[in-house]
From TrEMBL:
Belongs to the CN hydrolase family. Apolipoprotein N-acyltransferase subfamily. NCBIfam families: lnt. This is Apolipoprotein N-acyltransferase. It holds the Pfam family LNT_N. Catalyzes the phospholipid dependent N-acylation of the N-terminal cysteine of apolipoprotein, the last step in lipoprotein maturation. It is found in: Cell membrane. Pathway: Protein modification; lipoprotein biosynthesis (N-acyl transfer). The chain crosses the membrane at residues 55-71, 83-101, 113-134, 146-171, 183-208, 215-235, 509-527. Keywords: Acyltransferase, Cell membrane, Membrane, Transferase, Transmembrane, Transmembrane helix.
Length: 534
């Protein structure tokens, strides 16, 4: 009997010990997950800084949380911290991607969500590598460390915008378009705004982490000085306003490429346009004409004649198919009144633009022979386009000079900058965001377009199939827009501008210079510290 009692006591003691060990391990895991969950929440919170909310302080404060957590982190810890932040940012910020995969890609909702999360997981590598790099090359000077963190963050955004065709969506600078730091757009572009935003966030984090009150002064002076930059004007009005009509057809995505919907769609655009032939410029969206250009010549010749007879010009998106080379091009053509015979419309006329930066999966499929048989997602209509040239001549429409970008291309500032010169009157972007339904995706797309206008100092015209169709002045302020998912025309006068911004002349080179100088200074400080230690 005593042996049994002793055995039971031993079992109870073992159970208690096991319970304590399990509780200890659970507490350990909770402590380990606490910071990554906090950073993921901070990344998700930063999405409120972008359209449609545009609460610019939220992105700034979220970056300050990340910078605070990076203090005293090892490079390995910094990688995990940056990855957690990025996962929160992209999992929430680009959640709209799954809509096109689910509704038009022929894949079930769980699969579309999984693919969206895989994309977010990939994009999170860039902030993770930026944080790792900032701690790998850390130095003892806290203020130089702030600059290093900012340089690494922007370097990560540059890499994200170029590697694997690039995905520059949700670059930090866009969150400040309506904030105190927006005056940097015409000076240094969105990358320069990202750099300054990260510096301010780092200064705020240093103030809290080490009670470095000069860092708070640095943050406040940067914000105040940035606001004062808005009073510097690089551009001025040029001539009389131009009467512009932006047409939004609101064609359901599922019907756009149905053969029996071809003529109803083309007639709808003619009906919407007919009351506005008195406008100087009429803009139709991306692929508004759902027939390939060589097969739509009768329709286009008629539209060209009517527009010319009414002393107006129509710029329209259309798909060009070259029967000789068997290549598709996402194209913009100009029909109607021309100042010179050289620009008159005819098939393969020079006054056209062919999209260069194609959207992966949507407009071209990497490893198409392997992927297309797997799922309808990889075999969407019009997903085999060829690229136009990187730099193309401006369109000439009714005597006005237009620098165009089709859909996704508006997210690549350097490409559009190469097309803009002092004679450019307007920026033009046409799109079809029906792929993403009533989500925040089209709103973010519109925000990116606004940034191009502010960077380059030119008014921007945006015509889309379902929205957002809008006009933006040369200072990046939205003038007017049409309601989403409505068939309507936005008619308004647009003021042309003259002059050039520093960004239109220099691009992102000043930002690259700051990044290179930062790494050079860090290397010199590290060398000096090493010699002092020896």
């Amino acid at each position: 009997m005593p042996k049994v009692v002793k055995q039971r006591s031993s079992n109870v003691a073992d159970a208690v010990t096991t319970s304590k060990d399990s509780k200890s391990r659970l507490n350990c895991w909770i402590k380990r997950l606490r910071q990554p969950l906090l950073l993921a929440a901070a990344g998700a919170f930063s999405v409120l800084g972008f359209a449609p909310w545009s609460w610019w302080p939220t992105a700034l404060l979220s970056m300050a949380v990340l910078a605070f957590c990076l203090h005293d982190s090892t490079p390995k810890q910094a990688f995990r911290q940056g990855y957690a932040f990025g996962l929160g940012l992209f999992a929430v910020g680009i959640a709209w991607v799954h809509i096109s995969i689910d509704q038009f890609g022929g894949l079930p909702l769980p699969v579309s969500l999984t693919l969206m999360l895989l994309l977010a997981a990939y994009l999170s590598l860039y902030p993770a590598l930026a944080c790792w790099l900032s701690r790998k090359f850390r130095c003892g000077n806290p203020y130089l460390q702030i600059l290093l963190f900012a340089a690494c963050w922007v370097l990560g955004e540059f890499a994200r915008g170029y590697l694997l065709t690039g995905f520059p969506w949700l670059a930090l600078g866009y969150s400040q378009l309506d904030g105190l730091l927006s005056a940097w757009f015409p000076l240094s572009g969105v990358a320069g705004v990202s750099l300054v935003t990260t510096i301010v966030a780092g200064a705020l984090a240093l103030t809290v982490a080490q009670r470095q009150w000069p860092a708070a002064v640095l943050a406040l002076c940067t914000l105040g000085g940035s606001f004062s930059l808005s009073f510097i004007q690089f551009i001025s009005p040029n001539g009389d306003p131009v009467d512009v009509a932006l047409v939004q057809g609101n064609i359901e995505q599922s019907l756009r490429w149905q053969p029996d919907q071809e003529w109803p769609t083309m007639l709808k655009y003619l009906d919407l346009t007919r009351p506005h032939y008195e406008a100087d410029l009429i803009i139709w969206p991306e692929a508004a004409v759902p027939a390939v250009e060589p097969m739509a010549q009768e329709y286009l010749d008629n539209l060209n004649y009517v527009a010319t007879h009414n002393d107006t010009t129509v710029v329209s998106g259309i798909v060009d198919y070259n029967f000789d080379t068997r290549q598709f091009y996402n194209t913009l053509i100009v029909l109607g009144k021309q100042q010179k015979p050289l620009y008159e419309y005819r098939y393969h006329s020079a006054n056209r633009y062919q999209k260069h930066h194609l959207l992966p999966i949507g407009e071209f499929v990497p490893f198409g022979e392997l992927l297309r048989p797997i799922a309808p997602l990889f075999n969407l209509p019009m997903s085999s386009f060829s690229r136009g040239d990187y730099t193309q001549a401006n369109l000439i429409a009714n005597g006005y000079t237009i620098a165009p970008a089709i859909c996704y291309e508006i997210a690549f500032p350097e490409q559009l900058r190469r097309s803009v010169n002092e004679q450019t009157d307007f920026l033009l972007t046409v799109s079809n965001d029906a792929w993403f339904g009533d989500s925040i995706g089209p709103q973010q797309h519109m925000e990116i377009a606004r940034a191009r206008a502010k960077e380059l100092g030119r008014p921007l015209l945006r015509a889309t199939n379902t929205g957002v169709t809008a006009a933006v002045d040369a200072y990046g302020e939205e003038i007017a827009r049409l309601p989403m998912f409505s068939a309507d025309v936005l008619r308004l006068p647009i003021q042309r501008m003259t002059g050039v911004t520093p960004f239109s002349q220099l691009g992102h080179w000043p930002v690259w210079l700051v990044i290179m100088l930062t790494f050079a200074l860090v290397a010199l400080v590290q060398l000096k510290d090493r010699k002092a230690a020896d």
